[in-house]
UniProtKB/TrEMBL annotation:
Name of this chain's protein: Fructosamine kinase family protein
Keyword Transferase: yes
Origin superkingdom: Bacteria
Family, per entry: Belongs to the fructosamine kinase family.
Keywords: Kinase, Transferase
Molecular-function GO terms, alphabetical: kinase activity
Organism listed in the record: Mesohalobacter halotolerans
Keyword Disulfide bond: no
Amino acid sequence: MEHIKAICQSNAISDQNISPLSGGDINDTYKITTSQEAYVIKINQAKRFPKMFELEAKSLEMLAETNSFVIPEVIAHGDFEKYTYLILEFIDSDQPRNPAESFAVALAKLHQNKSDHFGLEFNNYIGRLAQYNLPQKATALEFHIDLRLEPQFKLAHQNGFEFEGLDNFYKNLETIIPEESASLIHGDLWAGNHLFTPTQACIFDPAIGFAPREMDLAMMKLFGGYSPEIFKIYNDIFPLESDWDSRTKLWQLYYILVHLNLFGSSYYGQAKQIISQYQ
């Protein structure tokens, strides 16, 4: 705890009470409480994930600029001795009167931030894996194959997992992926990466990029935790391309491959099943 106290003091946060927070498997995370404020601090070894917290801070600031969701304010980030850290505003959770509407409205507003290209001006992380956003791509098809699927398939191969028929799979995607412009997405929108304040929804731990907006919806459906009402309200506000629900598994493949490369063989069969569905 001494290094955490020293980091806090170097950022003018004094008289602190430090308590561990659960939920992450990559970083050590703590709540810092002072007489006036509360903060979250995330800590890791400086050499382990280069620029992870710098990129997370940049991503949170980009999300905040959309005025869509509540986003934790970035207080500070940097290195201290052998550690790297990120200090954020601590946000208390509560339940608004209409949580489904609050979330759907915010998500639609986020996705209305558009770009002419797919990707981002910097690479980042999804979990502890590198996520590639460069070079930016002109189409959703190129983006999904070159920057999302291919890096994960290559990593899976290195980890001993083989996939057959990918050329035919990629060919079929040409008629499946819609030609919709890129939206700014959260990129890792499972239920553990959001909470509610008394009036609004809040999101954090992003893996942002300008991407097909259906990717966020697919991730929301992958592990559950989101009301069906959210998807209905979202579609009423910001109508999706036709047959969007038929593409959910396709977008989920990226996240399944990420989990395969993070956690191992329990996701292998699911990945192969999705590929066969679109071959």
